[in-house]
Specification:
Strand order of the largest sheet: 2-1-6-5-4-3
Low-confidence stretches: 17-26
Radius of gyration: 20 Å
Strand content: 35-45%
Oligomer: single chain
Structural class: alpha+beta
Order of helices and strands: HHHEEHEEEE
Mean pLDDT: 86
Number of strands: 6
Length: about 140
């Protein structure tokens, strides 16, 4: 009967290791749509944390006026920003090796931007390398 606690401990350890592997794998996918959906989920949950953890050191954001922002300014601008709801649609992906280029429409509570996001796998982790937004024009009546 002394082996019962050992077996319980062993089973618990195996279960925890399986769970930790499955949680870790969500960032190891190379499927472009799943990678982008992971990014959007993380962004919606905590924009500042997303930018702080997912922007590459040489990240560049280009706005619709052609102005550039780097990693430092994007992280600083998003300090204290609360969770939000946004989604992407009209998606098109190009993938080659450790590079994904995604384009489509990103909706932020009714405000629409056409985007191009460049994602790069660095040290086994997908990072946000570059971003470009252009406001989607609304039709005049």
């Amino acid at each position: 009967m002394k082996t019962l606690p050992f077996k319980i401990a062993l089973c618990s350890l195996l279960l925890l290791s399986v769970c930790s592997v499955s949680f870790a794998q969500k960032d190891n996918t190379d499927d472009p749509e799943k990678v982008l959906q992971l990014f959007i989920s993380e962004y919606n949950a905590d924009p500042h944390r997303f930018f702080d953890s997912r922007l590459s050191t040489d990240f560049r954001f280009t706005d619709s006026k052609g102005l550039f922002s780097n990693r430092e300014s994007v992280v600083k601008t998003n300090e204290g920003r609360k969770s939000l709801t946004s989604d992407v649609s009209n998606l098109k992906f190009f993938k080659e090796g450790n590079l994904i280029v995604a384009s489509g429409i990103h909706s932020f509570g009714g405000y629409l931007v056409a985007f191009t996001y460049t994602l790069q796998k660095q040290n086994g982790r997908w990072m946000f390398a570059a971003s470009h937004h252009t406001a989607v024009a609304t039709e005049k009546k």
